[in-house]
Amino acid sequence: MHFEKKYHLVPFSPVSDADVYCQLIVDKEGITLDYSSNRGTKSLLVPQKETKDFRQWDLWDHTCFEFFIKNRSDDWYLEFNFSPSGAWNAFYISSYRQNEGEYGDLDQLCVSSRVNEETIELISVIPFDKIPLFKAQDFTEGELEIGITSVLERSDKTLEFWALEHPGEEPDFHRGMQPLFAH
Fold this sequence. Notes:
- By secondary structure, the chain is mostly beta strands.
- The chain has a single domain, classed as Immunoglobulin-like (Sandwich).
- The protein has strands at 2-11, 20-27, 30-37, 44-45, 54-55, 64-71, 77-82, 87-93, 99-102, 110-115, 120-127, 144-154, 159-163, 178-179.
- Strands 1, 2, 3, 4, 5, 6, 7, 8, 9, 10, 11, 12, 13 and 14 form a 14-stranded mixed beta sheet that branches.
- It is globular and about 40 Å long.
């Protein structure tokens, strides 16, 4: 089983000369997310890479990349946050914005990043053995909804919100999940 698709994210507010993409790759081992932005440290504040990946809260307050996944028929979903610093977190959400805390089956995720003045690239791998609620075949059956998002912190400390779509009048990544094959 192999599924691969490249997604183009859109900003909540217009941003000129900027793009954010995510290549979603699924195989029998897990989910790989390869995020890229054509803007780097020249115009954005990007957390410095740490020597070890670690779990951390509130990554969305600065430049980070996020992934949401749920079965279409369920209210609950998982939220993953990844920082270019190597920090990450995962949450079990029982229903819309009802965070039940850190998703406990994960003790570590691999987050790698390359950052320069012009670009950011971040790759994270989520092994299926760490998220037994989902399996590789779920990605072929059309029952999944996903959210692929990014928060980019500008040099002036304002935040840009990027997602597959923005269905409301305010940025809300929890409302922007789409059927896997919608885009």
